[in-house]
Each structure stands twice: as C-alpha cells, then as structure tokens.
TrEMBL record:
Phylogenetic lineage: Eukaryota, Viridiplantae, Streptophyta, Embryophyta, Tracheophyta
Pfam families the record matches: ELMO_CED12
Source organism (scientific name): Ceratopteris richardii (Triangle waterfern)
Protein name: ELMO domain-containing protein
Annotated ranges, domain ELMO: 46-207
Top-level taxon of origin: Eukaryota
Annotated transmembrane regions: none
Amino acid sequence: MILCGCTQQKSQGEKYLDLDLTRDQEDRLHRLRVRIETAFDSHCIDHQEALKALWYAAFPGSQLTGLISSQWKDMGWQGNDPSTDFRGGGFLSLENLLFFSKRFPKTFQQLLCKKGGRRATWEYPFAVAGVNITFMLIQMLDLRSGKPRSWPAFRFLSFLTEEEMAFDLLYCVAFKVMDTLWLAMHASYMEFNVVMEATRLQLEHELTLESVNRIEDMPSYSLL
C-alpha cells in the first residue's frame, strides 16, 4: 500500500493550540472518531454490501464476480482482496469513497478513469489513493488526538459542528486537489508522497482563510 509517511508529522513551523471545545463540538468529534475507529470487517454483512455498492458505483455496467476477485484491480486496489488495503483508513475510507461516488458522480468517474489532463505512464491507483487520503486527513486534523491542536484542525471542527458530513465533503475536495496537483506537477507513481504533502498544505491553507466558514466555501470546492 502507498503510505504517505509525510502525513504523520506536523507541518513545519506549525504551532500547537490549546482551545476549549463546546459540548456540540465534542459530540460531533466523538461521532466522527467512532467512525474513524471502525475497522473494515470482511465478515460483516454491512461492510460487504458497502464494498459491493462501491463496485457498482464505479462500474455500473459490470457484474462483480466476488468480493475476492481480480476485478478489484481495475478500481486500483493492490490485489484480489480489497479488504487488505483498508488498514490505513478503516471502514471510514470505504464510506468516503461511497460518499464521493454519490455526491459527485461525474468527478468520481473522471478520477477513477483518469480522464482529463496529460496522464503519467505510471498513474496512482485510484482506490488505494483514496484510502491514503482518508488517512492523511485524519492525521492533518488531529482526529486521533484529545482535541484539535492546530488552527486548520480547529477550523474544521467548527465546520463539523454545522455539517456532520464535513469530513466526507473535505475528502472529496482533497481527492480532487490531489489529482489536480498530480497533473500540474507532471507526477508519476514515485512522486505520490510529494503530491500528498502539497495537497495537505493546500488544504491547510484554505481551511484557515477568513472567507471560509464551511467546506463549500473553500476555493478548491469549485473544482468538484
């Protein structure tokens, strides 16, 4: 699995904050953390059905032969069993991909099929990249910490208080930003981590803009 090690460190020069949370913020943060801590369970019927739903969202005209099949490689999983690729993002990464496919189906298909722009010979694998984006956002937003420690993370929490699906929306923005930077940087597979770091920096910048009061206000949201 491509693992963006750069996301495990704070951005250079970033200062830690110590801000109190409201009860609503704590409640929304708790709900999101429950989602984050839910591992993908290949024996859970609901998780199996969600994985099947992702397949048919990606390839509506193609019959899936099984939850373990070489077909999954067409979506950008590493092998025949996609359940082995969820370790970095858990069930949340599958939920994020499903949300993306339903909320922005056209953009989802564009990124899945690598449409638009001058593409590299060795492209990033779509599905595994999606899992890495979930992992990167969890790290960037301090979602496994006691409470947000950076200004971008705290701003995100204020958005989450108003919109419970703020993380899923930010995920869609992040995926599109990553692909846009991938093309702009003429990147190939070996530069994936570099592109992910650039994506993180762009998101952190936009989350702290005074004009941004919700995910939909982020300049990059218009890319979707």
